[in-house]
Amino acid sequence: MSAPASLNAKTIPPDRINLSPASRNTVISGASGRTFMGTRAVRQRVALADTVIPGFTPRMPAIVEEVENPAVELTYPDGDTFGVADADGQVYVRPLHAKRLAVHFCGWEALQELGGAVDKLNRLDIFQQPISTYIDTPDQTDASTTPTDHAVFITAKERGQYTIKTGTEAGTAEGSAYINAQLRNIFGGAESLNANASLGTRTRSAYSANFDTPVLSNPDLRWQVGGLASSTLKHWASHEEILKGGNTRFLWQTGARSKHEFMYSGLWRQVTGLAEKASPTVRADAGDSFKSSLTHTWTNDTRDLPMLPSRGYLLKTVTELAGFGPLQGDVGFGKFQFDSQAAVPIPIPGIPGESGVSFTAGLRGGLLLPLSPGAQPQATQSRLNDRFQLGGPTDVRGFRLSGLGPRDGQDAVGGDVFAAGGAALLVPLPRVGKETPLRLQAFINGGRLLALKSADSPEKVDGAHDGGASGNLLATLGELTKKLPSAAAGIGLVYAHPAARFELNFSLPLVVRKGEEGRKGLSFGVGIDFL
C-alpha cells in the first residue's frame, strides 16, 4: 500500500474524523499530525515543520491523536550532530526550535512525545502490536512541503472486531468453566462490550456484561456501565449469596502510576440456601437486602512486576458509602480499606547486577461503621455480607479460608475492623536462574479481625464496649494493638504467571486464638492480590 501524499497543517483543515464500522476497510486521510486506523495497515505522513510536540493531546471524538500548537520549525544549527540516521547514514531528525515558546526543543524530546502518542493508541486496546513509527524526508514532488519538513509515518492495524474465549480455571478451593465474548470499536470510538458467563464449584454461576468507552478519545479517562448476576456458595458461613444489580463508573489517571475510580452500584442481595446447622447470626441476616452505594478507589502502583515485585511500592484505598442520605436502600454503612506493599532488591556480594533476591512487606486494614439507612432513626448492626473476612492462602497464610475473627458456632461471621501484615524473602531457585518467574519464599504473616459490639449482637469481642457505634469503633481500634495478632510462618514456591500468581506453601501457625482455624501443612493459593 502506498502512503498518502504529505499533509501540511496550514493547508488541511482540522476536520473531525470518525472511523465507523462501515469504513474499517478503507484508508482514512485528514489533518496533519493525526493517526488513522483501519483493518489494513495505514501509513500517514505528517509534516513536523508545522506542528508542535508538547502534548499529542487527543481532542477529537474519533480515535485520533492530534499534534497541537502549530509553532515548531526544524533548524540545523552549525556543528550539531544529534539526530536519527537512515540506512544510508543520512541524518534526518535534528533539534527543533519553538518560535512561540522561545525554547530549544531537541529531536530526542520530539521522539519521546511521538512515542507518548503511540503509547496512547496502544492503551486504547483496539490495535495489533506493535504500532510502528518511521521518520523520513518529505516528498520533494509535493509543492506544499519545505526543505525543513520531515514526514512521520505511523502504522496501525486494527484488531479483530470480536473475540470469543472459553476455558477452565482453578483457584483457591474452586474450579470453574467460563466463556467470554468481547466486541471492540463498536461505534468507531474504541468502545468495547464484554460479556462473561461462568459455572463453578463455589461461584455456582456468574453472568456479567460491561460496556466501556474512552471519554473524548482519551484512554486515561473512561466511562463504564455494566450489570451482573451471580450465585456464590459461602461454606464458611453456611449459606449461599445471590447478587443481581448494576453499576456505572468513571476511571481516570492523574499520573503515570496513579489511578482513580468512582462508582455507583445498586445490588439486590439475598442470603439463602442455609445449611441445616447454620448459626443464629447467619439466620438473622437471611433474606433480601438492597445496597445502594458510592465507591472511590485510588491506586498508586510503582512495582516493576505486580505478580512478583522486586522493587517499588503499592498504595491503594477503597472508600464506600452506602444507604446514606439520597442513596436510600435498606443497608447503611461507611467502609474504608487500605492496602500497601513495598519491595526492595537485595544485592548479593559476588553476583554482578541484579541477584534476583528481593524482600517484600505488606500491610492492609479496614473498618466498617454502620450508619442509619434512608430515614431510619438510628444505625443498625452491620450485615453478614458487608463485613470483612480474613484468613486463607492469599492473605493470612497458615489459616483456613475466613479462619480468623468472630465466629458463631461453626460459622465465620466476619468482623468490622481488621489489620493484617506480612513479610517475605524471595530467592531464585538453584540451577533455575533469576530470569524465570519461579522463586522460593520464606514468609511470616499475621492479623486480627474484630467485630463491633452492640446490645443485641451475638458476637463477643474482647475489649469492645457498649455505647454506640462510634464509641465501639474507637474501642475496637484500640483493641487491635493490645494483644498479639494471630500469626503463622512458612516456606513455599511462588510462580508468577502474567495472569495470576501461584503459591504452594508449607505453613506453621504460631499464634491461634480460641475458635480460629489454623492450618498446619501444605496449602495452594491462586490469585492476583496476595498479602
UniProtKB/TrEMBL annotation:
GO CC annotation terms, alphabetical: mitochondrial outer membrane
According to its UniProt entry, the protein's GO biological process terms are: protein insertion into mitochondrial outer membrane
Cross-referenced Gene3D superfamilies: membrane protein fhac: a member of the omp85/tpsb transporter family (2.40.160.50)
Entry's Pfam families? Omp85
The entry's keywords: Membrane, Transmembrane, Transmembrane beta strand
| Domain Bacterial surface antigen (D15): residue ranges | 185-530
User: What name appears for this protein in its UniProt entry?
Assistant: Bacterial surface antigen (D15) domain-containing protein
Protein species of origin: Friedmanniomyces endolithicus
